[in-house]
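#struct-help
A.M.: can someone run this one for me? Single chain, 113 residues.
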Amino acid sequence: MPYIHVTANIPITEEQEKALAAGAGKAVALLPGKSEQWLMAGCKGGEALYFQGKDEPAAFIEVRLFGSAPDSAYEALTGELTRLAEQTLFIPRNRIYVQYEECRHWGFAGSNF
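D.P.: on it. Structure tokens below:
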């Protein structure tokens, strides 16, 4: 049950949204036991986002998942999500943060896992 959300300070086209969602769907398999089947992905462009005091293109990628994963899986996913954002949104990798949050409680269809 992963959730991946990209926030950027540049406009994101519908085509780019779809490319990010498709790429996230493939990338999530880098986390043991996770797949696109349970992935929810989203993105929001044109947000006020400053990095190093500048409003040059930048992105913040949030990854939330039910349970946990080894550090090596997070490292691999960071590389893939950064590559995806760089190629899709043309944001330099040194202006992209990726944050992970492990959740113990996750609700779906009116109950919890």
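A.M.: thanks! The chain has a mean pLDDT of 96.
D.P.: also worth noting: Residues 85 and 91 are 7 Å apart (CA to CA).
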